[in-house]
């Protein structure tokens, strides 16, 4: 409700700083474009393995979304977003994504099926692309299996393209002795860097235009403050800009100024302590509070704003909810809590994109997707043949569907929502 009010206040048609990697909001910075060009080139030229690393929130998953849009009609694509998988589970996930149905999950049969696909496609030249996001989480033996998969090809033509996307530690991990063979095969290695200062300013304008622009205006000092705090990392820019918008809205101000940004940064450090890269945001907080107090001599104003914003934040689903999902996902991705009597079980999607299926099994058709941080009420639950739990939910379009326990975090609320 509050979120709607603030969009109305600024005449916006959409939330400009949502945290989902949405291709519609893709801002083609020089870095992002160069990496996309390299990956397109790697696939076109059949380079085999490519690797892209980058700090959290720099836009790796966003790039993958664009890449998939480019290739989805011309290639078979398997996108693995939860890569903490054994070799067998990994193979199963790949085959499932490229629509190969097998009666069993016997590893030899899966490899045989995969080889058959490669042979079939060798006539037409259609690529098979395996994309692994968050690849720093792939166990070593699964990485080794990936290398063996790429060995299946005997022809000169390398139809199988593998893209590993992950945080900077992935590069180090691949330097280990036992992964040397894989590392040597990676022909394209790139690091995604944050936006520059002028790109940060363009990025903010760009997202505002995409969201209908309305009457929003971040003044130059506000943008400078966003850059110096976010260091050009898009996710941080979004979080800070979104909260600064909220602060300006609450104070009835159509122009977002430095003090709104400073307030946003202060509030950010209070509520998002768990991701390491946000820690630096906390260092300046004391100083900032002091500066705000001295410059405006208005502690009262700040306190008023603080309580108003925290109330406003409560029902907001954007930054905070998505962050909640993200933080919880740093664990196993499926932490179950006991739900007490009289409480309604809810789930939060804890991976970037989760499949919603027709029935409580991986064999059933995917009918929709849900983004990280989406919250649903659990209507029913069942276990499948291999003991994996599935939750029945109602999607935003009103259809009932099922989601696997592996991609959610379970919680509860009292009474009805
Ligand atoms: N080039 C871009 N254009 C528009 N938005 C972007 C761009 N890059 C990143 N973003 C935004 O920044 C946020 C983080 O991006 P994304 O999820 O792609 O980062 P990531 O590198 O995959 O992060 P992580 O390492 O945590 O998975 C998202 O809200 C996304 O929309
Ligand atoms: Mg990502």
Please report which band the strand proportion falls in: under 5%, 5-15%, 15-25%, 25-35%, 35-45% or over 45%: 15-25%
Secondary-structure class = alpha/beta
At CATH level 3, the topology of the largest domain is Rossmann fold
The number of distinct structural domains comes to 3
Tell me the helix content: 40-55%
What is the fourth-level CATH superfamily of the largest domain? P-loop containing nucleotide triphosphate hydrolases
- Mean pLDDT across the residues is 81
CATH class of the largest domain: Alpha Beta
Number of helices: 16
Known CATH architecture of the largest domain:
3-Layer(aba) Sandwich
The main pleated sheet reads as: 5 strands, parallel
Strand order, sheet with most strands: 2-3-4-1-5
Euclidean distance between termini CA atoms:
14 Å
The low-confidence runs, each spanning 5 or more residues with pLDDT under 50, are: 270-341
List cofactors, ions and other ligands. adenosine-5'-triphosphate, magnesium ion
Q: Would you mind describing this structure in some detail?
A:
- The structure is a single chain.
- By secondary structure, the chain is an alpha/beta fold.
- It has three domains: 2-15 and 195-317, no CATH class; 30-192, P-loop containing nucleotide triphosphate hydrolases (Rossmann fold, 3-Layer(aba) Sandwich); 329-414, SH3 type barrels, CATH 2.30.30.
- It is built from 16 helices and 15 strands.
- It has helices spanning 2-9, 30-44, 60-71, 87-97, 107-124, 140-151, 169-173, 180-185, 197-210, 220-230, 234-250, 258-271, 279-283, 285-296, 299-313, 319-328; strands spanning 49-54, 75-80, 127-132, 160-166, 186-192, 217-218, 255-256, 343-349, 353-357, 366-371, 375-377, 380-383, 389-394, 400-404, 408-414.
- Strand 13 (389-394) and strand 14 (400-404) form a beta hairpin.
- The two termini are 14 Å apart.
- Adenosine-5'-triphosphate binds at residues 19, 21-22, 25-27, 29, 32, 54, 56-62, 167, 234-235, 238.
């Amino acid at each position: 409700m509050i979120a709607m009010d603030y969009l109305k206040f600024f005449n916006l048609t959409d939330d400009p700083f949502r945290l989902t990697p949405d291709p519609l909001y893709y801002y083609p910075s020089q870095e992002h474009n160069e990496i996309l060009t390299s990956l397109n080139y790697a696939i076109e030229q059949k380079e085999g393995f490519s690797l892209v690393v980058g700090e959290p929130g720099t836009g790796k998953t966003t790039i993958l979304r664009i890449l998939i849009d480019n290739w989805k009609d011309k290639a078979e694509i398997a996108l693995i977003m939860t890569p903490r998988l054994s070799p067998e589970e990994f193979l199963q996930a790949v085959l499932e994504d490229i629509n190969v149905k097998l009666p069993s999950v016997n590893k030899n049969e899966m490899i045989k099926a995969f080889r058959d696909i490669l042979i079939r496609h060798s006539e037409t030249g259609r690529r098979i692309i395996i994309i692994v996001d968050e690849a720093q989480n792939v166990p070593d033996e699964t990485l080794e299996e990936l290398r063996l998969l790429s060995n299946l090809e005997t022809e000169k033509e390398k139809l199988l393209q593998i893209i590993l996307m992950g945080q900077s530690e992935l590069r180090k991990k691949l330097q280990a002795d036992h992964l040397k063979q894989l590392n040597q095969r990676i022909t394209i290695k790139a690091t995604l860097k944050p936006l520059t200062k002028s790109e940060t300013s363009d990025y903010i304008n760009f997202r505002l235009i995409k969201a209908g622009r309305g009457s929003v205006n971040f003044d130059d000092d506000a943008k400078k403050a966003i850059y110096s705090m976010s260091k050009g990392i898009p996710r941080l820019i979004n979080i800070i800009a979104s909260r600064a918008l909220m602060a300006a809205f609450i104070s009835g101000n159509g122009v977002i100024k430095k003090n709104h940004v400073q307030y946003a940064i202060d509030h950010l450090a209070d509520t998002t302590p768990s991701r390491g890269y946000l820690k630096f945001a906390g260092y300046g907080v004391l100083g900032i509070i002091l500066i705000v107090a001295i410059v405006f001599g208005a502690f009262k104003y700040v306190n008023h704003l603080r309580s108003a914003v925290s109330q406003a934040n409560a029902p907001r689903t954007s930054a905070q909810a998505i962050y909640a999902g993200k933080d919880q996902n740093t664990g196993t991705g499926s932490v179950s809590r006991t739900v007490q009597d009289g409480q309604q079980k809810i789930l939060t999607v804890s991976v970037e994109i989760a499949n919603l299926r027709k029935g409580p099994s991986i064999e059933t058709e995917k009918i929709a997707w849900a983004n990280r941080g989406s919250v649903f009420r659990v209507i029913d639950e069942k276990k499948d043949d291999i003991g994996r739990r599935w939750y029945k939910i109602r999607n935003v379009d009103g259809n009932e569907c099922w989601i696997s326990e592996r991609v959610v975090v379970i919680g509860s609320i009292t009474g009805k929502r």
